[in-house]
Amino acid sequence: MNNDLINIKEKVINNITIISAFFIGFPYVLSILRMIRIGWDFAFVWHTVVYAIVIILSIFRHRIALLTKVIAMATVYTVIAIASLYKFSFFGAYYFVFIGIAILVILHGFKVALYYIGLFTLIYVFIAVQYILGYLQVELPPQDHTTSVFSWVAILVILLSLSLVIIKGFGQFYSELIVIIQKKEKTEIELEKHKEQLERRVSERTTELQQTIHMLKETQAQLLQAEKMASLGVLTAGVSHEINNPLNYILGGYTGLVQYFRDNEVNDETVTVLLDSIKAGVDRSSKIVSGLNEFSRQKETFDEQCNIHEIMDNCLLMINNQLQNKIEVRKNYSNENPHIIGNIGKMHQVFLNIFTNAYQSIKDNGSITITTKTKEDMCYIEVSDTGIGIRKDDLPKVMDPFFTTKDPGMGTGLGLSITYSIVKEHGGNLEIESEQNKGTTVKISIPH
User: Fold this and answer.
1) Which of the four pLDDT bands, split at 50, 70 and 90, describes residue 389?
2) pLDDT tens digit sequence for 230-276
3) 326 in helix, strand or coil?
4) How far apart are CA 355 and CA 363, in angstroms?
5) pLDDT value for 331
6) Which of 21, 134, 212, 253 sits a CA distance of 20 to 30 A from 197?
7) Measuring CA to CA, which residue among 188, 186, 185, 129 is closest to residue 156?
8) Which CATH class is domain 299-447?
9) Beta strands 439-447; 378-385: pairing state
């Protein structure tokens, strides 16, 4: 409200100074003509000073302080009124006082205006006494009532009455103005509150929308991965079945050959080596098929006995071709073979993702170290690699859907996100520690 009032006061006093400059300018022109005709006198001097003050206030109204302008204009009107009283008695321009009263009421309130009226009344009485006692003579044609006490008192009563009317009128205007400004300020405050509430609601809705979008992305990622794994499971199951049939033929042939050579007492060392090679190949192929079958299990429940060491060995077997002659796998398994209650197929997916990330991070030669241990009712698994590691800035984002640090075509950014979700589904926790150019360690803790 203070700023609005100050702006209004500035406009009022500025307009008054401009109007005064025009109105005082006309009698000043007459004063100049009079000075040219009869020479300059005291009246011309004070007229010049007053007009100069008004002109200066008008020209520099935007640079002069409000209080200075108010005092200056009130003083100008007071001087004009006093000079008129001295020269023309109560016929003079004492009405200028009313303008000063109006200025003070609007700009400084009722008390200051009352003080102003009191001061002018004292000056008025002082001049009236001088006229009554004959010390002053009016410059108009002689008027007997200029020495009459009644005339001076009557004029004073009229003057005070008009002053009070002005104070009341402008006071009411001033009060209504304050009420209007207060209502405006209240409205602005309410609008600002509504604006803040709206901004807060928009921010909350935006945050909720972002969270919803993030959840939808995660759900979409999981659905895509689930569909992908389902398709892969169907394909793997079919491939496993088709491989099992010829394996059974080979195993049957191997068994028949062993029996044949035993029945005919053939003890050729070369034959024995060849038969052992066939048996080793069949056994290895059987393990790979068995691992594929475990990986492609489509069961959605979490009520299976999951042998952690066996699951990790199956996963290592499936990526063995990527590890040969390049990466050494070190197994620090606990003596107690940990079992958890969960989903065998999904746990295969967890460790296959972790092992795949580990070997893909190793550019040349390196190692992957797998450590397991049990403590009370928890199973702890650590998988460490000597790969390129993860940047510190990227580490908080590695489990976000679609985030990947791999080269294009090497990853979708879904592996760790799905892995983290599966571990959480089993009631466990997954943490990743990494240092760039030194390697990464994935820590899993899961109840067993």
Assistant:
1) confident
2) 545 555 555 555 666 676 667 677 677 777 777 776 677 776 767 76
3) coil
4) 14
5) 92
6) 212
7) 129
8) alpha beta
9) antiparallel
